[in-house]
Input
Amino acid sequence: MTQRIANLPPERARTLAAAYAAAIAGARRRNLAVLAVLLVLIVLAGAMAEVRPLTFLENIRNFTAYLGRIMPPLSPGTLPGDLAAWYWGLPKWTMLLGETLLMAYLGTLFGGIAAFGLCFLATANLVRSRLLCFATRRFLELCRTVPEVVFALLFVIAFGLGPMVGVMALAIHTAGALGKLFSEVVENIDMKPVEGLTASGASWVETARFAVVPQVLSNFASYGLLRFEMNVRGAGVMGFVGAGGIGQEFLVAIRNFYYSDVSAILLMIIVTVIGIDLGTERLRHALLGRESAR
Amino acid sequence: MSGAAFRRAMLADIGGLRARHPQAFAVPLRQRLAVIGAAAAAAGLAIVAMLYLDFSLLRILRGLGRLGEFAALMLPPSPDGRFLAFLQALGETLAIAFLGTLTAALFAFPFAFLAARNANPNPFLRFATKRGFDVLRSVDVLIWALIWINVVGLGPFAGALAIACSDFGALGKLFAEAIETADRKPQEGVTASGGSTLDRLRFGLLPGMLPVLASQVLYFFESNTRSATIIGIVGAGGIGTYLTELIRVLELQQVAFLVTMILVTVAAIDFVSARLRRAIIGPAAR
Output
């Protein structure tokens, strides 16, 4: 059965249409204003960053040419020999990549331990003293705001060249970043176990150990793995400032135009990073899945 | 029953309690062994790594002493009359971060639809786009900067391109996830009232997704201001150029001043973007 809906009286329809138009016009004006501000910012930033679209268009050929040049000379007839020539430095590069991974591991481990120790002090629900909480938070902020490469630059001068410096820089940055995430996890816990332990006379350390840690451990592990993933990427460029790992070798290859070496090392880095991404993602899902299943 | 009496009654039956609730009194041996084993493996790997990477206590102690000297040399932070130059470099850094993030977002937006299951039915294209994002993302910003310097020369332009490239991968992945997890009901509504696929995306998907995207872009801008400060280390413009140079020549008072400037700027941007984010997505869903 079809039924025709009666038209609105023309007066009423006009008022409604006008109200609709006004509402739309308001939203449109706001959108236009936002766009205008964005445009001004883009022009300003473009001028500051010396963006030259024409040079870019001219040089984009260089980019493709560069990609072409770093392509290894592989031909199907002599594939094994070509591969061997392309990866002539495989043993050395594997060692350096291993060094990079170990740096990331140690940096994450030390930083994670430091963050574990500090995160409880930075939470408002476990620490009574507001001053202590505030001071810890600012300290963690300082650790994570200064980029790890800057720490590495300073440490290279103080401690000398080498991977130890890279580990220290990664560890400090990790402590700052993880400390913040950890303390947020701790602030979101169920407070009932804490109250129970406090009521039965447990000390502060005992409360943290038996009421807080069991609740947060799987989240901590998940964040730690995520950080490890980031640190692998970070450790890869530590060599740029002399702090160990594969970065040094890569920098030399790029600066000296050893084209096929560039692609060989780059490919190794990419494969390693993607492999670690996939691995840690699985582990993290397993950890968090168990948590939500409980 | 008073507390003491209750305690006595419970303790009288301690053997029964132990038998009925064994897991409350002791962790099972296998679980305990697994925990100890994992901890031992982690510690063992750490020790091997420390030996392999030439950790030495002597060097650490000597370095710590030198760091102490550095800290003394850093005070008081002073720009040494180069305040304006520093300010300009800082502006350059912000411009790099802004342009890089914006370009990345503009490119990531259409490509994210290619990578999302509910927008692109072709599995091969989807897979290729996703792996492409992975590759772009797994190359560090500094490496991108080195590559772009070879193409457009030294300077902030290379830095902006580097940030755009690595963020394109990261934002593309995040955008695609946002598209995939979007509420399906508005889209079904559009389809039911006769809208085409494009109508479905434009009117059913986009309005709900835009605030999420905007908030993510702001978040990336924030973290990119941090990356942009170091991009000068390889010569791609911004405040990092000064930072590297001044650390190398041990002008530590100026270094301290620069670091303070960076900290203040990052804090200010954090503050502003947090407010903008809240304004965009509303106070309830942060």
